[in-house]
């Protein structure tokens, strides 16, 4: 096979869909353990929610027709027939009667509306109603929220806090979920040292990618095994990679993806299993020397060593692969945000460029402000909210043009025009080069 023959971005996405298959391991967890897990089966309601007609306000349950024409100057007069207690069945009401009902209380037979407490006045056993009610006003009907057989969530849905509330309401307690993908990360290079290293020797670099990529994987619900750092020795590299590969569903190798004579990643990947290398080189900037492989049914990814390149590749491709393991390709979360571009961005035709941007709100519109910097500058990634693609056929993008920002998963707020969280870094018309190719 001819290595380092670059693929277009769209072709790589098609290869991901074609070659990587969902995991088959499924577990059942309790409702209390299901947060952030991905459904392995669709879930349907087996009962009506609510199971009875109920009030949405504090007030009086009435027959709507008994209140027609009521006003401040000419109230309707009804007999108070009692109080409805929470958690108890309500007795019926007859024509001309009303019963006090709290929010969430069960509607009595014969009643079809609730008059809010603000619009009535009690005088002994008589109720003055100063506003007419329409049928079903302030009432949730039986099964209006969920009806028996209703599709609640599809296979591949990632459960969030509000989702668990819906399942609790429907009485769904045992949840079928995909087992969390186990991902191994192996960093390579003689120059790489653990982040906790106190004092760096000349030429040494702390391992950034293992931390950032590992955290990004965990944000998608993966379990991460950190395989440590392996030196530029083929036999050691192969032994460590094989040992980690046997423990995981997906293996990520950081560094060693270029064509240098001491980069053994391609050779190691080929040894792990068939079919081997699928992609070695993608026509994008940054991230060109990315490697994608498949060994024994497992994805194997070779990320560029430069931190920005590695995270751009993660957001573009690795995130898609994890979604494939979860069988979420039909219902993935689309993190793109529409924004206007704050300046012209040139590009080379035939290569997709991905530019880091910060989002700013200006006069009620969202603007994407490019943050330039070489691919080894991790600080520029921390200043970014996402990336903008300049497609391969285009020579660039124009100032003011609407673009889709592929947003990073983070809790940083969007800054207004008056604020500048970057300390003036490159966003104010910097002439620094766009991200490098590695």
Blueprint (SSEs and pairs):
Elements lengths: L8 H11 L6 E5 L12 E2 L9 E2 L3 E4 L13 E8 L13 E5 L11 E4 L3 E4 L2 E4 L9 E2 L10 E3 L7 H9 L4 E5 L3 E7 L3 E2 L11 E2 L2 H11 L3 E8 L3 H12 L4 E5 L10 H8 L2 E6 L3 E2 L5 E5 L2 E6 L3 H19 L10 E6 L3 E2 L5 E11 L2 E6 L7 H5 L3 E5 L5 E2 L4 E6 L7 E2 L22
Parallel strand pairs: 5-6, 13-16, 13-17, 14-15, 17-21, 19-24, 22-25, 24-29
Antiparallel strand pairs: 1-12, 2-11, 3-10, 4-6, 4-7, 5-9, 8-9, 18-20, 20-21, 22-28, 23-27, 24-25, 24-26, 26-28
Helix pairs in contact: 1-6, 3-6, 4-5
Q: Strand fraction band?
A: 25-35%
State Rg.
30 Å
**Number of helices, counting only DSSP H or I runs of 4 residues or more:** 7
**Structural domain count:** 4
Tell me, briefly, the overall form. Answer: elongated
Q: Biggest sheet, in brief?
A: 6 strands, mixed
Low-confidence stretches: 410-438
CATH architecture annotation name of the largest domain: 3-Layer(aba) Sandwich
Question: Ends: how far apart?
Answer: 22 Å
CATH class of the largest domain: Alpha Beta
Rounded mean pLDDT score: 87
- Secondary-structure class: alpha/beta
The CATH topology assignment of the largest domain is Molybdenum Cofactor Biosythetic Enzyme, Chain A
Count the E strands. 29
- The proportion of residues forming helix, as a percent range, comes to 10-25%
* CATH homologous superfamily title of the largest domain: MoaB/Mog-like domain
């Amino acid at each position: 096979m001819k290595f380092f023959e670059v693929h277009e971005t769209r072709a790589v996405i098609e290869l991901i869909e074609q070659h990587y298959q969902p995991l088959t391991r499924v577990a059942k967890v309790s409702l209390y353990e299901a947060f952030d897990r991905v459904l392995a089966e669709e879930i349907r309601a087996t009962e009506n929610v609510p199971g009875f007609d109920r009030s949405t306000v504090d007030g009086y349950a009435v027959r709507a027709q008994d209140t027609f024409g009521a006003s401040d100057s000419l109230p309707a007069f009804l007999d108070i027939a009692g109080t409805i207690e929470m958690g108890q069945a309500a007795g019926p009401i007859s024509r001309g009667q009303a019963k006090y009902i709290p929010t969430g209380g069960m509607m009595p037979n014969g009643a079809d509306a609730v008059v809010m407490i603000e619009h009535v006045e009690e005088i002994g056993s008589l109720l003055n109603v100063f506003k007419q009610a329409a049928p079903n006003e302030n009432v949730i009907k039986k099964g209006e929220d969920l009806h028996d057989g209703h599709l609640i969530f599809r296979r591949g849905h990632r459960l969030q806090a509000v989702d668990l509330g819906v399942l609790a309401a429907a009485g769904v307690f045992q949840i079928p979920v995909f087992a969390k993908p186990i991902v191994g990360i192996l960093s390579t290079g003689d120059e790489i040292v653990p982040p906790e290293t106190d004092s760096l020797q000349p030429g040494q670099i702390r391992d950034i990618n293992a931390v950032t990529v590992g955290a990004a994987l965990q944000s998608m619900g993966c379990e991460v095994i950190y395989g440590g750092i392996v030196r530029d020795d083929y036999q050691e590299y192969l032994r460590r990679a094989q040992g980690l590969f046997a423990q995981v569903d997906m293996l990520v190798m950081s560094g060693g993806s270029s064509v240098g004579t001491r980069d053994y990643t391609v050779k190691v990947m080929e040894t792990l299993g068939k079919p081997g290398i699928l992609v070695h080189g993608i026509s994008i900037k940054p991230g060109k020397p990315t490697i994608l492989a498949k060994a024994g049914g497992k994805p194997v990814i070779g990320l560029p060593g430069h931190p920005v390149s590695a995270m751009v590749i993660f957001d573009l491709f690795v995130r898609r692969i994890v979604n494939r393991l979860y069988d979420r390709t039909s219902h993935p979360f689309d993190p793109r945000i529409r924004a206007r571009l704050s300046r012209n961005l040139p590009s080379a035709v035939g290569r997709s460029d991905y530019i880091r941007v910060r989002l700013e709100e200006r006069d009620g519109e969202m603007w994407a402000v490019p943050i330039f910097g070489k691919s080894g500058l991790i600080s520029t990634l921390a200043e970014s909210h996402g990336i903008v693609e300049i497609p391969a056929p285009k020579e660039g993008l124009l100032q003011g043009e609407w673009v889709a920002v592929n947003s990073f998963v983070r809790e940083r707020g969007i800054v207004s025009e008056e604020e500048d969280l970057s300390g003036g870094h490159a966003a104010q018309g910097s002439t620094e080069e766009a991200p490098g190719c590695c």
